[in-house]
Design a protein that fits this description.
The complex is a heterodimer. Chain A is built from no helices and 11 strands. Chain A is mainly β. In chain A, the strands form 2 sheets. In chain A, strands 2, 4, 5, 6, 9, 10 and 11 form a 7-stranded mixed sheet that branches. Chain A has a 4-stranded antiparallel sheet with strand order 1-3-8-7, with no helix packed on it. In chain A, a hairpin with a 6-residue loop joins strand 4 and strand 5. Chain B is mostly beta strands. In chain B, the strands form 2 sheets. In chain B, strands 2, 4, 5, 9, 10 and 11 form a 6-stranded mixed sheet that branches. In chain B, strands 1-3-8-7-6 form a 5-stranded antiparallel sheet, with no helix packed on it. In chain B, a hairpin with a 6-residue loop joins strand 9 and strand 10. In chain B, about 35% of the residues are buried. The chains are: A mainly beta, B mainly beta. The interface between A and B is medium-sized, with 28 and 26 residues.
């Protein structure tokens, strides 16, 4: 069975640009969450979507936005990129919302120069 | 909000020895505590989890214990092997939703 798939795997952008990251959940999973992992730290929660609705938002600026599509895939958008946005962006899927284990994808490594 | 502290930040053990990683959490409403293993350049992988209505859970060489009163939980790895070398993260979740608050990670090195 395919796990959580993310694209692209690596991305280099310039300050001020915009980026879109994509995620396909495990088949049958209806919830997608996004996390940011800065080098040497644990992942930090950005968003959760379930059945195309936002179910949670972490402490990130409005430059970060996301959406979930009818097939449960998801996109994370970041506008006006800053150097500090350089990180590994992880997508995790789960069957539901309450206590379902999260399974992470391999992430997208974003470098902002 | 929830705060999760994790110790130690690095842990070096000899092959065959046991390793223990400890975490504390701040939100008494937390009810789900997973542990993830992350090898260099790879995704975090769920290795074991425990819910607040259980005090201990074991899966082969890995066990997790939870003390709700003290708000701490621990990961125990017995008979460590070189392939156990990785960064381990604890996490906690309060209420519904999928917001996990992660600890800062423990770099485990198993030496031959």
């Amino acid at each position: 069975d395919a796990g959580v798939t993310q694209s692209p795997t690596h991305l280099i952008k310039t300050r001020g640009q915009q980026v879109t990251l994509r995620c396909s959940p495990i088949s049958g999973h209806k919830s997608v969450s996004w996390y940011q992992q800065v080098l040497g730290q644990g992942p930090q929660f950005i968003f959760q979507y379930y059945e195309k609705e936002e179910r949670g938002r972490g402490n990130f600026p409005d430059r970060f936005s996301a959406r979930q599509f009818p097939n449960y895939s998801s996109e994370l958008n970041v506008n006006a990129l800053l150097l500090g946005d350089s990180a590994l962006y992880l997508c995790a899927s789960s069957f539901g919302t309450a206590g379902s284990p999260l399974h992470f994808g391999n992430g997208t490594r974003l470098t902002v120069t | 909000g929830e705060n999760v502290e994790q110790h130690p930040s690095t842990l070096s053990v000899q092959e065959g020895d046991s390793a223990v990683i400890k975490c504390t959490y701040s939100d008494s409403a937390s009810n789900y505590f997973p542990w993830y293993k992350q090898e260099l350049g790879k995704r975090p992988q769920l290795i074991i989890d425990i819910r607040s209505n259980v005090g201990e859970k074991k899966d082969q060489r890995i066990a997790v214990t939870l003390n709700k009163t003290a708000k701490h939980f621990s990961l125990h790895i017995t008979e460590t092997q070189p392939e156990d070398s990785a960064v381990y993260f604890c996490a906690a979740k309060a209420g519904g939703g999928n917001k996990l608050t992660f600890g800062t990670g423990t770099q485990l090195k198993v030496e031959l």
